[in-house]
Amino acid sequence: MKRYITGSIMILILLGIGGWVFVQSPFMQESGDGEINTDENGRSILDLPAVEAGERPVKEFDLTAEETSWTIEGEESVDAWTYNGTVPGEPIRVEKGDFVRVELTNELNVPVTIHWHGVVLQNRMDGVPGVTQDAVEPGESFTYEFVADNPGTYWYHSHQHSSLQVDKGLYGPLVVEGDGPSVDEDKTFILDEWAVNQDREDWTNMAGMMMGSMNGDGEADTKQMYDTFTVNGKAGSAIDPLEMEEGETARLRFVNAGYQLHRLVFPEGSMEMLAVDAEKVESSSGRNVLQIAPGERIDVLFTKGEGAEQIAHTTDVEHAADMKIPVLSPGGEQTASSAPETDTEAVKGTSYESEELLFEDIPKADVSYDMDLSMGMNMGEGMTWQINEEIFPDTPPIQVEEGDIVKVEITNEGRLNHPMHLHGHRFQVQSESGGGVVKDLINVKPGESYTIYFEANNQGEWLFHCHDNNHADRGMVTIVDYEGVYSPFELNDVNNP
């Protein structure tokens, strides 16, 4: 039976996903067939089958959220919030099939969580306060457990007041090994933006933002908020070089933890895309500019050429000079090099078809949902970011039953970019090469539209939101709600950072 989502009745509370938190207890919602579902005739997400280690290898990690004075470059430092004292946090590297156990201890004076971005896991381990768990209070701990079923590049970050906490450094890399070509090096680079020499702008009432949005690049707000680009928490001369011999190969895993789209220029003929959002793609070499959206992960195969080289941001944006990765022979020195070329078309997350598809043909949808993204104004509150002309908590959820095929048509009617991220699932969208590409995040630029499909095969309450967390903070969030289950969690004022 095809159902169209119209609306719902929810009880929600402020603060959480950077400003709003979904609370679904008690929960009442009208389904497409006119029935009313409440928590009394469903079951808690905590009652869904729990994952167990069994005979799997167990990999254990301890992460401590703590305040750290972090040096960006030279004498420039920031008051950061970190996992284990570094930006990014401690790398978590496991193998396919491992049972992963991570104990989070909170030594900050605000609540925190960990969301395992891109990992398909149990709902109770998703790290969203007020939806899948209570936020971890100062001085307390929480243990996350999941199976690393799918090889690829992921990352972890706080989902409590994300627009602030991710901005302050609460993130780190997660790599699941188990596939890919044999290489000489395997390195992860997390890209970000910081306000180092200026105060972080109150973008909700920026006088120049509306005019800046007219230029069409969709980046007006983030360009005004930050003055420093970083790679693995460092800028400019402080960025560690990549050391390789001529002819050696490396798998370079790029994660965009910031809120601005970044374009990296590689030496001509040195780069081939391997995977996007932990899904292998059928690519070919030929283009040397890589575009990576906020929240996205892209792996490339890099081959070292002769002499000193660099992987550098395109020069068409301010602060681009901060983001340069030297590529040196062991013991070599970085030499002056010309600015990277910017006239080559970039490859991006939708450029190539995935090797393994969710659907070989366009499926028949059981649930259809139109997601219109736009900008609005709230008297006294400033700018808001809307889904279907509503801000969370008034955005209608995507209501599904287990096994449904879900079709979502996403259209950006605003003037800024919106990287839309779905928790707990992977979806399929059309690639530029004509086939399908499997992802968990799609960057929708002004005027663009995408149609995605996914199977409702992971029961729970799952976020679908813009991963420019400043936009999520101001309303661009909805929920994929499974019939028959509910969240027992609520927030109270102590969760307000």
Automatic annotation (TrEMBL):
<dbReference type="InterPro" id="IPR033138">
    <property type="entry name" value="Cu_oxidase_CS"/>
</dbReference>
<dbReference type="Pfam" id="PF07731">
    <property type="entry name" value="Cu-oxidase_2"/>
</dbReference>
<feature type="transmembrane region" description="Helical">
    <location>
        <begin position="5"/>
        <end position="23"/>
    </location>
</feature>
<keyword id="KW-0560">Oxidoreductase</keyword>
<keyword id="KW-0186">Copper</keyword>
<dbReference type="InterPro" id="IPR045087">
    <property type="entry name" value="Cu-oxidase_fam"/>
</dbReference>
<keyword id="KW-0472">Membrane</keyword>
<dbReference type="InterPro" id="IPR011707">
    <property type="entry name" value="Cu-oxidase-like_N"/>
</dbReference>
<feature type="region of interest" description="Disordered">
    <location>
        <begin position="329"/>
        <end position="349"/>
    </location>
</feature>
<feature type="domain" description="Plastocyanin-like">
    <location>
        <begin position="383"/>
        <end position="480"/>
    </location>
</feature>
<dbReference type="InterPro" id="IPR011706">
    <property type="entry name" value="Cu-oxidase_C"/>
</dbReference>
<dbReference type="Pfam" id="PF00394">
    <property type="entry name" value="Cu-oxidase"/>
</dbReference>
<protein>
    <submittedName>
        <fullName>Copper oxidase</fullName>
    </submittedName>
</protein>
<keyword id="KW-0812">Transmembrane</keyword>
<keyword id="KW-1133">Transmembrane helix</keyword>
<feature type="domain" description="Plastocyanin-like">
    <location>
        <begin position="202"/>
        <end position="303"/>
    </location>
</feature>
<feature type="domain" description="Plastocyanin-like">
    <location>
        <begin position="66"/>
        <end position="178"/>
    </location>
</feature>
<keyword id="KW-0479">Metal-binding</keyword>
<feature type="compositionally biased region" description="Polar residues">
    <location>
        <begin position="332"/>
        <end position="341"/>
    </location>
</feature>
<dbReference type="Pfam" id="PF07732">
    <property type="entry name" value="Cu-oxidase_3"/>
</dbReference>
<dbReference type="InterPro" id="IPR001117">
    <property type="entry name" value="Cu-oxidase_2nd"/>
</dbReference>
<dbReference type="InterPro" id="IPR002355">
    <property type="entry name" value="Cu_oxidase_Cu_BS"/>
</dbReference>
<dbReference type="InterPro" id="IPR008972">
    <property type="entry name" value="Cupredoxin"/>
</dbReference>
